[in-house]
Amino acid sequence: MLVTGGEILTKARAGKYGVAAFNTNDLEITQAIIHTAEKLSSPVIVQLSEGAIKYAGLSDLTNLVADLARRASVPVAIHLDHGSSFESCMKAIRAGFTSVMIDASHHNFADNVRDTKKVVEAAHFMGVTVEAELGRLGGIEEHIVVDEADAFLTDPQEAVQFVEQTGVDYLAIAIGTSHGAFKGKGRPYIDHARIETIGGLLSIPLVAHGSSGVPAYIVERLRAAGGEIGEAAGIADDDLTRACQHGIAKVNVDTDLRLAFTVGIREVLQKNPKEFDPRKILGPARDLMAELITHKLTVLGSVGKA
Ligand code: G3H
Ligand code: 13P
Ligand code: ZN
Predict the structure, then answer these.
(1) 84, 162, 208, 254: most buried by Cβ count inside 10 Å?
(2) How many angstroms separate the CA atoms of 4 and 126, rounded?
(3) Is 155 an annotated catalytic residue?
(4) pTM of the full predicted structure?
C-alpha cells in the first residue's frame, strides 16, 4: 500500500528499527525493492533522485513505482531524494510522491530554514511529509580533532532550532557517513555520541544518508568479473544497528544496489559472451539486488514490521 514517509518513519522511530530507503532508476531495481520487502513483511521507501527522474522520465518512473507500491502487501512510500528546489519538490508531489526531501544543506542556517519551511508548508497542505538536511555529509577519521568534525557534522542545538523553526517531519544529519563506494580507508568512523545526543533532543525520525555497506564479497565479485574499483569501503552493519537504537529511522542506500546490478550483468556476460536476451542478463542482476536488500532489511530490523 502506498503511504507517506511520515507514517512509516514515525513507527520506526518509536519501535527503534530502521527503514531502508533504496534509490531506483528502472523496473528491475523497483521490483527487487518492493518484492523483497513484501517477501519479508517489511515497510520500505523507494526514492528517486533528480538524476533518476532525468534518466527515466518523471511520469514513466513514478507511475511504475506507484503502481507496484499501491498493489504491495506492505507499506511503501515514494520519496524524492535530494530535491534541489521548491519547484522540484512540487513537481514530484504533483506526480504522486508521498514524501520529499528539500536539500538546502549547502546554504547557511537561515537560508536552509527558509527553503525548508516553504516546502514543508506546501507539502503538508497536500498531505505529503518532508525530509531536510542539516550539516554536511563526509567521512571522518576516528582521530580527527573535534573542531574539525564540528565544522561539518550536525550541531545538536542547531538541529533542535532547525526542527522548531521549519516543522520538518524527519531530519538528515551528518554523522560520518558519505555517499558512494569510497567511504574511507578501512572502517568509516561513525559519531555515535552525536547521534545519541541529537536523538535525545529530538523525537522526530532521523535520517542517515550514505549508508551502503559496500560488502567485500560484492567488491571481490565485481573484480573477478572484470570490473575495476579502487579501495572501496562502506558502513558496517553494527554501526547501523546501533544508530537505529538512538533515533536513525531512515537509512539511505543506493551504491549497494548499483554494485549488485553491475556484478549481476558482468557475471552473466563473462560466463556466456553469446547471450543477448536482456531478460537473461538483467534477471540475475535483479536477484543479486534482492539478496543485498534482504540483508539490509534484516540488519535494520524492519523484517516483520509491515
Ligand atoms: O545521494 C545520491 C544518490 O545516490 C542518487 O545518486 O543523483 O546519481 O541518482 P544520483
Ligand atoms: P550510498 O551512496 O551510501 O548508497 O548513499 C545513498 C544516499 O544517501 C542517497 O541519498
Ligand atoms: Zn543522499
Answers:
(1) 208
(2) 11
(3) no
(4) 0.97
